[in-house]
Amino acid sequence: MADRDDAPRSSSSASATSRQRRSRLAREPAIGAPPGTLVVDGAAGERCQIFVIDYCAEQVIEKELASIDEVVAYLEDDRASITWVDIRGLGDRHTLERMGEIFHVHPLALEDVVNVPQRPHSDPYLEQQVVISRMVQIAESGNVELEQLGILFGKGYVVTVQEEASRDCLESVRERIRRGKGGIRSAPADYLVYALLDAVIDGFYPVLEDLGERLEDLEIEAAAAPRGVSQKIHRIKRNLLDVRRAVWPQRDMVNGLLRDESAHISKETRVYLRDTYDHVVQVMDMVETFREIASGLMDLYLSGVSNRMNEIMKVLTVISTIFLPLTFIAGVYGMNFDTTASPYNLPELRWRYGYPFALGLMLLSVLVLLWFYRRKGWIGKASLPE
Amino acid sequence: MADRDDAPRSSSSASATSRQRRSRLAREPAIGAPPGTLVVDGAAGERCQIFVIDYCAEQVIEKELASIDEVVAYLEDDRASITWVDIRGLGDRHTLERMGEIFHVHPLALEDVVNVPQRPHSDPYLEQQVVISRMVQIAESGNVELEQLGILFGKGYVVTVQEEASRDCLESVRERIRRGKGGIRSAPADYLVYALLDAVIDGFYPVLEDLGERLEDLEIEAAAAPRGVSQKIHRIKRNLLDVRRAVWPQRDMVNGLLRDESAHISKETRVYLRDTYDHVVQVMDMVETFREIASGLMDLYLSGVSNRMNEIMKVLTVISTIFLPLTFIAGVYGMNFDTTASPYNLPELRWRYGYPFALGLMLLSVLVLLWFYRRKGWIGKASLPE
Amino acid sequence: MADRDDAPRSSSSASATSRQRRSRLAREPAIGAPPGTLVVDGAAGERCQIFVIDYCAEQVIEKELASIDEVVAYLEDDRASITWVDIRGLGDRHTLERMGEIFHVHPLALEDVVNVPQRPHSDPYLEQQVVISRMVQIAESGNVELEQLGILFGKGYVVTVQEEASRDCLESVRERIRRGKGGIRSAPADYLVYALLDAVIDGFYPVLEDLGERLEDLEIEAAAAPRGVSQKIHRIKRNLLDVRRAVWPQRDMVNGLLRDESAHISKETRVYLRDTYDHVVQVMDMVETFREIASGLMDLYLSGVSNRMNEIMKVLTVISTIFLPLTFIAGVYGMNFDTTASPYNLPELRWRYGYPFALGLMLLSVLVLLWFYRRKGWIGKASLPE
Amino acid sequence: MADRDDAPRSSSSASATSRQRRSRLAREPAIGAPPGTLVVDGAAGERCQIFVIDYCAEQVIEKELASIDEVVAYLEDDRASITWVDIRGLGDRHTLERMGEIFHVHPLALEDVVNVPQRPHSDPYLEQQVVISRMVQIAESGNVELEQLGILFGKGYVVTVQEEASRDCLESVRERIRRGKGGIRSAPADYLVYALLDAVIDGFYPVLEDLGERLEDLEIEAAAAPRGVSQKIHRIKRNLLDVRRAVWPQRDMVNGLLRDESAHISKETRVYLRDTYDHVVQVMDMVETFREIASGLMDLYLSGVSNRMNEIMKVLTVISTIFLPLTFIAGVYGMNFDTTASPYNLPELRWRYGYPFALGLMLLSVLVLLWFYRRKGWIGKASLPE
Amino acid sequence: MADRDDAPRSSSSASATSRQRRSRLAREPAIGAPPGTLVVDGAAGERCQIFVIDYCAEQVIEKELASIDEVVAYLEDDRASITWVDIRGLGDRHTLERMGEIFHVHPLALEDVVNVPQRPHSDPYLEQQVVISRMVQIAESGNVELEQLGILFGKGYVVTVQEEASRDCLESVRERIRRGKGGIRSAPADYLVYALLDAVIDGFYPVLEDLGERLEDLEIEAAAAPRGVSQKIHRIKRNLLDVRRAVWPQRDMVNGLLRDESAHISKETRVYLRDTYDHVVQVMDMVETFREIASGLMDLYLSGVSNRMNEIMKVLTVISTIFLPLTFIAGVYGMNFDTTASPYNLPELRWRYGYPFALGLMLLSVLVLLWFYRRKGWIGKASLPE
Hints:
The structure is a homopentamer.
Chain A: H1 9-15, H2 19-22, E1 49-55, E2 60-65, H3 71-77, E3 82-88, H4 93-102, H5 107-114, E4 121-124, E5 129-138, E6 144-154, E7 157-162, H6 171-179, H7 189-202, H8 204-224, H9 229-259, H10 267-332, H11 354-376
Parallel strand pairs in A: 3-7
Antiparallel strand pairs in A: 1-2, 1-3, 4-5, 5-6, 6-7
């Protein structure tokens, strides 16, 4: 009931110009395209990289494949081994479609895995289970980067599909398989899926630690309220929103795997997934706590800005109001009334101590104002430059 | 138990003057009108456009009908074909009532479909299921525009009723039927309903992308805090509220279709609706994330405004307090004390270097204040015009 | 187990002085009064108005009764007709108590109906069901006014008890009965209850439209941030809180009628109540949306106030800092240094072009500052009066 | 498994110095004390007051007891009567422990009743039910005061334990028993419990009315934004938080009594408790509404403060900028350029109408600025003192 | 399926430099490490302290062990006694691993107990139950410090694992065992677990009392709005977030113990846990209330800052605008118009009472402005220094 055509090309090339935006919203096929339509940006010319790890308790075979068709050999030769096919990059329509055929993937499952980003979730199908997860890392720009990890698994095989060819957080799982640590080599395929999900969730911790450190640095900065702090806080909030949007549905997803009476996950593995579930919830707790801290920082910053404004106004007020009376007194004795015309006209000008008298008047006005401001607490040690 | 009379005419003509408002609230019949009362604005003289697409695996007939009565032929001739009747515009009472009779529509179902806007929901009736959905698009004004799509379907037929005749997001579905792609032509009527709902939900993505782009533009603007940004943020928030109000009930609606043991939806179609459900939830996630970003932007903007105020105050303070002492010194030496009356009266005026001494005094006061402000960090590279 | 005494008279007369407040809180009997105590403000001397509409498919009898006892005749004469007794006003203890006796009302049900306001809810009793609802309208002051509508119904009769005698939103239902529209005359009593509740909920729409229009008007005002807008926004928020407090429990109430296996509501009527439920939820959606808009407006207003402050400060800063240097220069050349005492004392005063030189100096300082402010973007077209 | 020792004396005497705080947090035994440890502040020397009301349909005996042991007689003499033992004050360890023995109270139930404050809840035990409730009143300071009411009841008896000996809101229930109103004398013990809980909940209404009145007063004050309003709003918010913390768990408590299949509450009493439940929910609604209003008031107040700042700034700006040009012009004609040295040096000084010309110049500058400010809307009727 | 290797050494030594951060996030093994990997910071050289209390109704043995192996003797000798092994400090890998072997601990359970912090939760395993809890105390810095308490228990034994060797809140439980109070010595192991959890929860009360006192102090400070209050409020908010993050999952944890049909907890103990559950909920209520108060304080503080700004602006405005007209008048009579050239040129200068006239003019302008400001309410008793 699904077709795989090349129709939505125009839509995908249009969206190619808005790369970073697409990474936030969904790479959807053209509106109303039939279910199972794969949105592959063929023009980009990217190829998929295909890695296979075939292992059993006794041995491990690890190889990069030139074509997806080579995987059939691994699936068929020995049913006792687990075959983990790791496809990186979504640029090659043929590989992805052929993978769908080899593993008998339901069109909707294939669409979920290929048309990124999908909301993390897990759906059981007859022959296999599809799990959509989200990996996280800090990009060089300091922002959080999310990448989809699609997992298809059934009896004896696990297929993972990653957005980007570059780096992932699954290397540790590969290492465990190579070194045969932790019994992973003698466990069934669903245990490998648990190991992958656990590695994905563990990947959130360093990202949150990074954000936590930045929050702590901002905590010190915020009180001083320099320019630009509000943008930094805003950026962290946005990153936290991104992480939150990635981690909330993963909780439902892991919970679904735990609870559903799926035939693809054994009871033994569920015990381990319970642990993963606890970790997802812990990550969510942290994200929410960080979000509250970031909101509090914004308040702190705004109160810092208001305090600085108060400081500026105090300086203006103190200096202005001290000099205004002085200038006024000087102005009075600068008036040109004719002192010869009458004894009432500025007699001070001819006093012997007229000038000292005027200076004394000025001094007095300064002292009165200083006393006033000190009583108000506006001047003192605090208002001097530290 | 329902009647279809022309009583509420006065109510509808009154509300005709407040068009855009009505589109936000409900086009309700007069208070207490019997259920099933159709509110049709007959004065407007609008006619409905009626399109029919009758298809089966072998052939497709597509035609615009002059009268709703012609549809009977399509329904009767061949039970194996699916008949999709698409009515656009709600201005013709006769057509709508006749449609109700032809398809044996329950009065409440007919009211839901005709009296827009209703809250998106889905109700099963004996012979058919009614689904109320909401289509979204960006109007030329840049605001989000919502339009109701009512769907009535039963065995072998689907009736869609749209508010406006102009444009919709269902063209892609028609195209799939015409080209016979994706197996839609051999699927039953409920699969067509799924295809329509999926197209409707997919229609939210470009709208959210547009809002997302505007938010990103505002993110850059907000820090500079020019006038008018707050209105722009407010407008986006309102649009997001509109989208949210459209999408939240659609989640319940799709979920209802998924869960209810409705006789009108087959188990195969439910698998596809599960996918639609994931998309609705993803849209909701985006809306909530955008709403949080918009709130954060408002904070950012307000902190920008405060920062600018600080900047202005600093300039005022620095310039005022530098010139006040200068003016005061000038004022002192502008006093008219009689220097001949006593040697204490402004002896500086007769000094050889009296004027340079006064200028030196002024320079000193400027330097002291500049040093003070630089220590406070008020002047420096940052406070000069960039 | 209930008594109806005249004890709480003092409490009710005390509360008579705080009328508008009582309408917000509950007209409760004295603390610890036995259940079923009726709080009737006998001193007010108000009488109840009693209207009866007795109808069946063939005929309608509508009459105002002088005494509640007359109603017995309508109840007994013909069991096939539906008797709707409409009591308006709560000032007549005898009538209310007698009504309780005639219809065998449980003391708690009678208390709920008489001691307003009660939280909207619905309780089944053996012989009848009691429904407490809330009607809404815009008072002349522009504020929302809530009035309780108590409904008691059983086989063949419906008793409604309204707080105020004046006006209600049930006239349309009476009209439908009189004109026999919509099959209401041949439906059982619970259908009349549905019709009443539907009319009550429909009565929320014009109120919300009014509030919506006021919000839109404020949206335009808020940006200009004149005084008094914050109070207007606050008043709308309070009205929305009142509406919300009225509508939230009505949802539970309608839902309760829908779900409960009450013997008093037939399956056919439930289908109609489902429609009413959708409308209540739509009203709630609108209220929540309006509340969010109102909150956004407050932010918009505050940012407008800040912007205006910035504007004022800019004018002060620009004008002050332009004139301060000018005044200083004038002050310098107003100093009285003895130009005859030395060539260093203000030689400019005796220059041929001394005055033009001073004016030139002033012009220069103005130009420098104007250039500075234009670079900062403080002056330009935007800062001039529009 | 519980012991009642005098160990935590030190802890309780320490906490005696922080009376008002203890009333907010819990009077807990020393950390890790065994369950059932009673925290009695023996040093305070307070005694309990013990009142007993023993009633049946025919007679009422009301008496203050000297010792808790006297109660045994009432319990045993006649099983048909209901014995209500009302203990006021928590200062007498012996009485409380003895009461525990007489009524066979589970140690945990006794701890709940004695160690105040506990969270309102209700727990069924084998022989009796314990209900912890919270009474509220307005203290003389105007703040809300909460007091715990512990209720233990079983067949034929009700024991109430109050924190303070002084006043309570249960007098009306006693009066009903004395006067035999409302059938309370012929009802079982659980009906008395309902009557007590209903009186407790009714006691919230006058408190909320008081807070509501204060909010309304503040509503008028807030717009004028005098100092101290923010503290008043904050105080009301705190009081509302206190009420909320008291009423939320009471809802769960009443709901628990309603739903639990407790053997201690009869079906008839449940009907009455349903009414109490509606009242608790109504109180909660009010508290939440008041909290929202109080939050809105804070916004209103802050906008009032900002408006006043604008007002002040306008006055400063208008007056400053009007006088600055004037002073400048005066300064120019106060310069001492030698008018004899050249015709370019201040020729105005020797003009016949030089002084009027200068005055005219000043007037012109004033008019220009006034026109400017009027166009900006800064001056007019609104900015004059009212 | 788990291995215990020394691989993640590098990760743990890296994180040793960021001590306080680690205490906030989780001490996780390297990403993707197999489940059950213990993260032990061997380089730190810390040793575990091991205490054992073996008790039955008749006797108590309390001892510090040199090696975990000695515990086997206590477990085996007498099955009727309860053995409580208390391990403090997480620095000794061997001890922790050996403990895992002795008690047959599931790798995931061991990981939960050792790799701190884990989210509080409780998981049943076949032979034992693991409970992760969080203890709280106020550090010397005044901040809240959280420490994990892991509890493993089965038939006849309880193992507790604490993060830090120093101090805990369990001493009171030990004292109860030593003195045989409250029947703890004759109760089974799960009752000891209840006693430990109850002590942990009781430990939250003094912390909250401390925070409550600080909030009350800040309440007085906030209105005066001195600098630094916002930081203090922020710090309390952060502490409350920490407490909240510790206490929320504990509610679920205790609830889980209450509800789960775990074989490790007897029905009798559940009654006591119900009491603990009430306490956890009470702590949560307090935390939420405190959080609301802290938010309110921030508003109070910001309104205080705004009020102070108003105060400053008023002083500036009053003083500036009083002296500006004075200076202007003085300036006018300082102009040098040639009074001999025309009778229109400043005739006042030659008046007999010219100077008194000028002074009178100044006095008048002062009086007018004072009257204006008094009418506006800007000056009066309130604006003078208190």
